Amino acid sequence: MSEHDVLLEVDELTKSFGTGAETLYAVDSVSFSIRRGETFGLVGESGCGKTTCGRTIVRLYNPDSGQVRFDGQDVHRLSRSQAKQYARKAQMIFQDPYASLNPRMTIGDIIKEGMRVHHMGTESELNARMYELLDQVGLNREHANRFPYEFSGGQRQRAGIARALAVEPEFIVCDEPISALDVSIQAQIVNLLRRLQKELHLTYLFIAHDLAMVRYISDRVGVMYLGQLVEIADAEELYSQSVHPYTRALLSAIPDPTPSDKPICENSILQGDVPSPIGRPAGCRFADRCPYATDACRSTRPKLETVSAGHSVSCLRWRELVENDYGKNDPSCTFCDVRQEAGINLNRVRNTNSIRYNENK
Ligand SMILES: Nc1ncnc2c1ncn2[C@@H]1O[C@H](COP(=O)(O)OP(=O)(O)OP(=O)(O)O)[C@@H](O)[C@H]1O
Ligand code: SF4
Ligand SMILES: [Mg+2]
């Protein structure tokens, strides 16, 4: 990727909460970059640090260390006026459209608020732009005078998108923008985001749990586990040739809409619960749940390594695991026996809207 193509670079970003022995590293040395006009999907289980990463990128949090560079500029070292410009260029759409809209303001005023802050025109110009935005996101002029409680979840999210677009951003962090919505509405909102991206040349960081949806909307995907990025690849490659044991487990845990006769033992695939995020283990954070973990994995921290162009993984054993086809020939690996017996084909694309973890526990 040439320097010219890159809009956003996240470089060894670390953000913790708490102090001393209780320090929780919500984002721990995370690095990735996003090209202009692309959608970078960020996936991982609840609590793995996706929102914290998004909030730090848009300056809602200051990082402990590391950098976020937007157009080459460190966004946490901006002058007051540069910070105001960045606040306009980088917007965020939130998971809960109800909580993110001021209940005492009409939708029209909510949309105009950012434009007022950035002195983007006279009141009549702002009104004209507000009506244009309502139209752009599939709402009507009559909606301008209504309050958020008078809207459905899908309409509220459309209003949230209009508010973000009002200040003419270049980049939007979409933090689980569809997970609070009915399945039928989810597709409408995702298609709206895709259309707006094309029309307005937007760049997205799309945060989600739903691997199927992330694949649909993203050009590239980063997989997070307990504050760290464990794999980055083009969306298609991640789904067909994932390398990290956690990514493979996540993909195999997607329920298959056309199940085979043989049952799939999901518990055997993604084992155990996510460990406490408090503290910073010396080794790989996935070691307690990884069927391939060795002593070295518990003492040495893996770094992102290049698998192929645009594909990187953070696993000490990725080469040997790929060479040995993830232990298919290793009789000591019960994990693979279970997987082979169940006939799971990790290369098969699963088209589903949800993901289950350890449901039988
Ligand atoms: N303001 C905060 N103070 C203390 N801890 C926090 C704060 N915000 C997040 N955390 C913790 O940081 C970790 C990461 O949280 P975060 O919300 O970023 O995860 P997430 O991946 O977005 O999860 P979800 O998918 O449930 O939204 C969690 O353990 C969370 O409890
Ligand atoms: S480094 Fe070790 S524990 Fe971590 S994912 Fe790789 S094999 Fe598993
Ligand atoms: Mg979140």
Task: Outline the structure in words.
This protein has 361 residues and is an alpha/beta fold. The chain has helices at 50-57, 80-89, 107-117, 123-136, 153-166, 183-200, 211-217, 235-241, 245-252, 295-299, 318-323, 334-342, and strands spanning 6-17, 24-35, 39-43, 65-70, 73-74, 90-93, 171-175, 203-208, 220-225, 228-234, 305-308, 311-313. The chain has an eight-stranded mixed beta sheet with strand order 6-7-8-3-9-10-12-11, with helices on both faces. The protein has a four-stranded antiparallel beta sheet with strand order 2-1-4-5, with helices on one face. Strand 1 (6-17) and strand 2 (24-35) form a beta hairpin. Helix 3 (107-117) packs across helix 4 (123-136), helix 3 (107-117) packs parallel to helix 5 (153-166) and helix 5 packs parallel to helix 6. The structure holds adenosine-5'-triphosphate, iron/sulfur cluster and magnesium ion. Residues 50-51, 175-176 line the site of magnesium ion (MG). Magnesium ion is lined by residues 50-51, 175-176.
